[in-house]
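Kindly inspect this today.
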Amino acid sequence: MDNMGISTEPSFLEVELPQTLLESPSTSTFLPDEEASVCPLLHSNNSALDPVLLSSHPLSPNIVANDITSSNISNTDCKAETSSSGSSDGIAMDAMESTSTNLFNKVNYHHLQNNNITTNQASNNHFLNGNRRQSKETPNFVSWNWPIIRKCTFFLFISGIMAMCSIVIVNIATMPKVCNPKISWYRGSVFYEINPAAFIDSDHDQIGDIGGIINRIEYFANMDISGLRLNSIFPSGPSNDRHINGSSLITIRPELGSFSSVRNLANILHSHNINLLLDLPLQQVIAARSEKEVLDVVSESLEYWIDQGVNGFYLKGLDSLKNNAALSMCLSSWKRILGKNRVLIVEESIFKDKSKSEISLLLDDIDLVDVVLNVENNAIQMKERIQVALNKMPIGEEVTWVQWSLSEVKSDNSLPSSNLERIFPATIMQLTLPGTTNILHTNEVAIAQNNKNRLLTDQVIQHSDDGATDQQTDSEMVHRMISLRERSPAIYKSFICKSDSNKQNTQILAHSSADILIVVRNYPRKNSLVSVTNFGSTKVTVNLSSKFYSGIRMLMTETDEKIYFERLKMFAYDTVVVKLDK
């Protein structure tokens, strides 16, 4: 300023300011009356502030006098430079800077509280190391070990994701491959009927027994049957017919085994998901007792065999009970003893000469009605027999169903060979009917014997249109048909449930010019199946294209064979089962 010719005397540079400007409300009025905790420039807890900021901030109480003097000198220089401008604006700026100087002057804040700040070097090192002292107002979660918490949370999150993925994978792996409707175990299933005395001999006394049945459990399990039925285990009455005339219902023929044998058989069957059924011959029981005694004797027998593990009973000879009221009362009482999960089977003959109302009353307590089909009938007779039986039965789930049986054919030389030939196609046709199917062991033996006779006479059955022979036996085809039935609701379901009513899902047709019976089974959203059975003794070619077009032949061991119904070749005593194209 000397170079510029301007005097630098202090009196020349001083500027007199109005008293009101010097006494700013921010310094003389407001700040002295405020507490440090509400001061906008200070924090109530100085320990939470960064030590570096505390040591450098103008409001820090650690500012020494030299810093204040330097600040005043700097402000004085600023006032000198501002006054050199010689304008009214310079005067105003000088006044504002003077006010700022007073605001940041330690002296003006001598009344503010300073409770937690220390100047100790050890305390400064403590702050720098990050170990800050907590005040009472600090929340507890601040002192938690957050690195460990983050690691544990991440681990739990990943574990949860992996657990959910595992659950999804397990559910997909265990999900059933098909979604077929479920029904009671005795409805739509297959029973295998055995006369124990005519089965396998396990004690070498030339008579079959229960031990022989136990030895063939795996054979029954592989057949996919739902029940094993013993038709004759009781001592016979005067007529020596053990099927309908038993002298006692709680005594086993000693040559067949003991009560422990029956209990052991039931337990083994249950382990293979097979149920045990017994035939109870009641003709002699009814003939020798009053109605009340019949009720009591049969009730005691049912309770006894239920304790041995028996799951169902075929009551034979009930047609001897002439009183309709007594018959209805007995059936109702016996069904209550059995309960919902055990089956009660009766003969079709008990409905003879009864009105519709009486039949309807009896059906309320019956699960299955046994209907026997004669294998000697032709296709038209078989159709009429089946249709009459179906029309008598109610349609629904929790109602009486039909149990289909074939007349017994023994494999001896006294019978016509045509009977042996017809038993195989009749069995396949029987397995396509709605309701429960009962297969006789003696009929399976007859089928096997017929196969053996063909081999001895070099007569092989042909099962394809190109003339190729099928190497599988008829018994194997029967077993495949049982498996197909178990997994096909179009076959094991006897009706289609509609919103307002139930509808039959079976059509029985007979060819007009050939001895051929056609059974059509269908179910919503499933492929329909049709069985075409030739009961005739000659090979025929029929045209069924007016009813069906094409499909895949089932029960074959080789690759699936495409079937067209325009020219369908049917060999003598043969049957085909076709899954129709949609």
Observations:
- Residues 19 and 95 are 11 Å apart (CA to CA).
- DSSP finds 20 helices and 18 strands in the chain.
- Residues 146-174 form the longest helix (29 residues).
